[in-house]
UniProtKB/TrEMBL annotation:
Protein name: F-box domain-containing protein
Cross-referenced InterPro entries: F-box-like_dom_sf, F-box_dom, LRR_dom_sf
Gene3D superfamilies: 1.20.1280.50, Ribonuclease Inhibitor (3.80.10.10)
Classification via CDD domains: F-box_SF
Length: 554
């Protein structure tokens, strides 16, 4: 065994599966391990503006040059001309994110984009480029260089301006080899869509809040992607041409399209038309739409293939609808909705025993009675959830339950039956939002202690900040250290604060800067992961598109 752990190829295999904290621990074992594991610390690197007064400032240029060959993911916060040589040495780079917001004094837009173009010109492994809300309009040179990137298959742009001529160039680049394209709040200045342009290789297309391009033209774009698997469409302005959308879905333009993420204004009848037109649906996201009784009728033909469904913030979605989906869809892996009542939950067993994500607010009420539900009702809910042994994400409180509405959500306590969830051995994320706020501090602390002890894979726990003041109970009934957040930290579990009143957050409007963000990492190409974050009304919010691992999307 000792000899095996001295082999570089064995250590390389181990290092590829460790996080930075574990890598640093391994480097402290011996000198040979330091040599083998240190390169893994450079897999992902963020280049920030040099600050000589900062104790842990940016590495010196010689150290950057020495380790440039190990970098796979590079985030550029500052396009420093002094480190251009470093950029050119990142020959193994697979992903680059350009997120620079300021220029050096005397620098200009042309020079900045010129350096970026030179940087990506001859990188034979570069597969993903992200242009993230830079304040400078992209140049033709950058797009022309992208076109020459032989391995480029993912392009994401945000808040980028394209004039008419540049839009033509951009579309041409996208039509070459790209498999995923994400355009977020980009401005196209009323473009003309080339008549003969086809996006033959495109598998995933995300058009989100694009301006200057009509929604009708965006549907034309969709119709030119014959091999598309997933379409994500977001816009709160403009009227959806529902007939054209249905024609694209039913007319054979995108015969492989099985994932629809539509965050646009649609009525119940319009959603039903879309579901009727789609030949096959595996992943469906319709948050904030009018999904209702008509939509459910149309959805039933897809029950046998449905794997992921998101019906968050849909006011017409009822508890019986959610229960029908759980009871009928045997292949379901992910569900997000607002409410599921205990009275509906107990009616029938769930068919989806392979569920990996459950994000539904659970109510425990007695029909026609204002009295508190007995603990046996809560235990029945936990016993049902305990059957979902494949879960890695569990949230049992919705946004509406977290607000002061007339609801009776499930209790989170040992007395209520939480211990039944000991079966969830794969759980990595648990959210109860505000449900512990009204609990006795000692009882809430006991919940945290139990989670830490039983859910050994737990990585993130979400609740309100009140949990930080909950501690163990002393002999005289007073709280003593350690506190709940200390236990979480000591066990490597991230505490994420749920903020129920968004108006009380920081001035810049980044409501979840240090909290849970929805990274979609389940769609990959040859093992290469893609991720991005959802936004709405200026803040990151809860919107899920399914489990994190989905090999069928390759």
């Amino acid at each position: 065994m000792n000899k095996a752990l001295a082999l570089p190829e064995i250590l390389a295999c181990i290092g590829s599966m460790l996080n930075d904290k574990d890598i640093i621990s391994c480097m402290q074992v011996c000198k040979s391990w330091t040599v083998e594991f240190e390169p893994f610390l450079w897999r992902s690197f963020t280049l920030k503006q040099f600050d000589p007064t900062h104790k842990a400032g940016r590495p010196q240029l010689d150290q950057l040059l020495k380790n440039a060959c190990y970098i796979r993911q590079l985030v550029i916060k500052h396009m420093d001309p002094a480190v251009q040589e470093f950029f050119m040495q990142c020959k193994q780079m697979e992903e680059v994110r350009f997120d620079a917001q300021k220029a050096d004094e005397g620098d200009n837009m042309i020079n900045i984009w010129k350096r970026f173009s030179e940087m990506i010109e001859d990188h034979g492994r570069l597969r993903k480029i992200v242009i993230d809300q830079t304040p400078w309009a992209m140049t033709d040179q950058v797009l022309e260089t992208m076109e020459r990137c032989q391995k480029l298959i993912v392009l994401e742009t945000k808040d980028t301006e394209f004039n008419v001529a540049r839009t033509q160039l951009y579309l041409r680049v996208c039509s070459k080899k790209l498999k995923r394209l994400s355009t977020w709040a980009d401005d196209y200045y009323t473009p003309k869509f080339p008549e003969d342009l086809v996006f033959q290789e495109m598998r995933y297309l995300d058009i989100c809040h694009a301006t200057g391009m009509s929604m009708d033209l965006q549907l034309t774009w969709l119709s030119r992607c014959p091999n598309l698997i997933s379409f994500r469409w977001e816009s709160w302005t403009g009227q959806v041409n529902i007939d054209k959308l249905c024609d694209v879905l039913s007319g054979g333009s995108c015969p492989n399209l099985t994932a629809l993420h539509l965050i646009v204004t649609l009525t119940d009848a319009e959603v039903a038309m879309v579901l009727d037109a789609a030949p096959r649906i595996e992943k469906l996201s319709l948050p904030r739409t009018g999904f209702g009784a008509l939509s459910l009728i149309a959805l039933r033909k897809h029950f046998s293939t449905l794997r992921d469904i998101n019906l968050q913030f849909c006011s017409k979605v009822t508890s019986p609808m959610v229960q029908e989906i759980l009871h009928t869809c045997a292949n379901l892996q992910s569900i997000s909705a607002e409410v599921l009542n205990h009275s509906d939950l107990i009616q029938q067993p769930w068919a989806c025993r392979g569920l990996q994500m459950f994000d539904v607010g659970i109510d425990v009420v007695i029909d026609g009675d204002d009295s508190e539900a007995p603990m046996s009702k809560h235990k029945e809910v936990y016993e049902r959830l305990a059957q979902l042994t494949e879960l890695n994400y569990l949230s049992i409180c919705s946004e509406t339950q977290a607000e002061p509405y007339d609801r009776d959500p499930i209790k989170v306590s040992m007395e209520a039956g939480l211990a039944a969830l000991e079966t969830l051995k794969k759980l990595t994320f648990f959210s109860c939002k505000t449900l512990l706020d009204s609990s006795d501090p000692g009882e809430a602390f006991a919940v945290v202690e139990w989670m830490v002890g039983k859910w050994r894979r737990l990585e993130t726990f979400e609740a309100t900040r009140l949990i930080s003041s909950m501690g163990a109970m002393g002999d005289e009934g007073s709280m003593v250290e350690p506190y709940a957040t200390d236990i979480l930290k000591d066990n490597g579990i991230r505490f994420t604060e749920y903020i129920s009143d968004r108006g009380l957050d920081d001035e810049d409007g980044d409501f979840y800067e240090d909290g849970w963000t929805d990274y979609e990492e389940y769609e990959s190409y040859d093992g290469y992961e893609s991720d991005f974050t959802s936004y709405y009304d200026g803040y990151q919010y809860y919107e899920h598109y399914g489990p994190y691992s989905d090999d069928d999307d390759d």
